[in-house]
Amino acid sequence: MDDPTGLFIVISLVVLAVCSVAGYLMLARVGRGADGWALGFFLGPLGLVLAWVIRDNALRDDADGIPSRTRPVQRRPGGVPDITSIVVIAGTIFAVFGFLIYRAG
């Protein structure tokens, strides 16, 4: 590959794949593997940090006697989505705009 853009894309996809699997494995033990996959895929290493925080909070709740699978879903008034949805949407928007800016320049 003589084209540095192609090499960058290949390396980026490999990093995203590794982060996706790591995020899934991190949150699968607390029943939120899909959230971990999405965080790892859309936000990369930052998503892994967020997945780690989510996992630690879930494990702390389990230690306090609140099982993560039976814990009621916390809905905010007015239908505001939880932080995971907000992070995934923001990551997607940043990725799309970053790609468009990169291609335009």
Please provide a written account of the structure.
The structure is a single chain. It contains 4 helices and no strands. The mean pLDDT is 77. α1 (4-28) runs parallel beside α3 (45-63) and α2 (33-43) packs parallel to α4. It has one domain. 73% of the residues lie in helices and 0% in strands. The chain is mainly α and 105 residues long. It has helices at residues 4-28, 33-43, 45-63, 83-104. The radius of gyration is 17 Å and the shape is elongated.
Helical amount = over 70%
What is the number of independent domains? 1
Order of helices and strands: HHHH
Report the span from N to C terminus: 21 Å
Structural class: mainly alpha
Number of helical stretches of at least 4 residues: 4
Radius of gyration: 17 Å
- Overall 3D geometry? elongated
Largest β sheet strand count, sense and barrel closure: none
Averaged pLDDT, please?
77
Poorly predicted ranges (pLDDT <50, ≥5 residues)?
none
How many strands?
0
Query: Approximately how much beta-strand content do the residues carry?
Result: under 5%
